[in-house]
Amino acid sequence: MALFATPEIENGRVVRIYASARYPSKQSGNLFFDSETTPNLLFADEMPLKMGCFYSLIAFRPSHILLSRDVIGGKPLYYNPRDLTISSFKEFCGNEALEICEGEVLKLDYSGNVIDRKIYSFEDVFKKENRDVNELIQTIEEKLLSFKPKHSCISFSGGVDSSLLAVLYDLQLVAVTANDKEEEWIRRAAKLIDRDVEILRFSEEEVKQSLRKVVSLIETYDAMQVSIAIPIYFATKFAKELGYNKILFGQGADELFGGYKRYETLDEFELENQLELDVKSLGRNNLVRDNKIAYGNEIEIVTPYLQWDIIRAAINIPPNYKVRKVNGEIIRKYVLREIASKYLPKEIAFRDKKAVQYSTKTKDLLFKIAKREGKQIKDYLKSLESNVENFWF
């Protein structure tokens, strides 16, 4: 369950703490956390300003319990104020579960009362600055080049995001799909960059068999979220079976550099606002889902594009460098493609790609399964009746 904790209290005093931090989460004494670096509790009140990465944490102190998350909210964390159960999964905390907000530092006494609460904003950590665009682009490239992943593989789709990671880091490529044409392209893209790729083909039946666990892990019946979660589930499971404890994904590139089709219809002012909103919402819309799946497969998701310095640089690049019209054609993620073109064949660097739920045919399979059951997709997903506890105990 990644992070889980519940104290045993007698006469207002803690007599015992039941807690665990299953990989990729960690424990240091009475501190339980999921982050790249160990949180320094000397800076507890300003933790979102000090960490410089995605994190969630639980710390049991003599007078209180400290709970906190980063300002994007990449790692989930919930608590029940009545019995002080705390977990990365809402299900473990029961019907009274409350979510720790993005950027929140919360102190609870051992009766569940709030002693102190601070909430830091995205702008407190990622400030807009007037900096030279070429300097910002250079920062992004340098940070990607200097990133050092260990004992990892790369989730590879043949798109610009994962292909750039593939040429920068000497790591095994893995891919999952149910689409013949996508498999053909993945193999071709890997060959173009002189790399081998391990591909897992999943079937309709395998999707059906995985649904109960996927829905329970991501804790939503939303069909779009489920259709995105399925290939991520298969990719993380496949990587784990191959012996890896970390897998690199290209998450964040679309939001930071303007990759979504819907950006094409926006004017520059609207585009700037939407890009900023989408970056701020990365945790809630994507990363919480992905990390819950990773917890279920006990593997760590690594996101090189979401290094704090890259986020700082990217949000200060003007939107016309992200979505740009060139020779009458709108090119999304223009600035990232320009960086990538130094390392990749143009065929890959400037290739347009469908979203994962469409390219892998996962969404089609999901609706076929529901139709065969004679149900609307949401009703079918709700009928699966399970909970995340079944997959831990």
How would you characterize this protein structure?
The protein has 393 residues and is of the alpha+beta class. The chain has two domains: 3-124, no CATH class; 131-383, 3-Layer(aba) Sandwich (Rossmann fold), CATH 3.40.50.620. Helix content is 38%, strand content 21%. It is built from 16 helices and 18 strands. Strands 3-4-5-6-10-11 form a six-stranded antiparallel β-sheet, with no helix packed on it. The chain has a five-stranded antiparallel β-sheet with strand order 2-1-8-7-9, with no helix packed on it. A five-stranded parallel β-sheet has the order 14-13-12-15-16, with helices on both faces. Strand 1 (3-10) and strand 2 (13-21) form a beta hairpin. Helix 3 (133-146) runs antiparallel to helix 11 (308-315) and helix 6 packs across helix 7 (223-241). The termini are close together. The mean pLDDT is 94.
Q: How do you describe this structure in short?
A:
It contains 16 helices and 18 strands. With 393 residues, the chain is of the alpha+beta class.
Main-sheet strand order equals 3-4-5-6-10-11
CATH class of the largest domain: Alpha Beta
User: The biggest beta sheet, please?
Assistant: 6 strands, antiparallel
Quote the beta fraction: 15-25%
Separation, N- and C-terminal Cα atoms: 10 Å
- Rg, rounded, reads 21 Å
CATH architecture of the largest domain: 3-Layer(aba) Sandwich
Instruction: Point out poorly predicted stretches.
Output: none
Shape: globular
Annotation field: number of helices: 16
| Fold-level CATH name of the largest domain | Rossmann fold
Count of DSSP strands: 18
| Oligomer description | single chain
CATH superfamily placement of the largest domain: HUPs
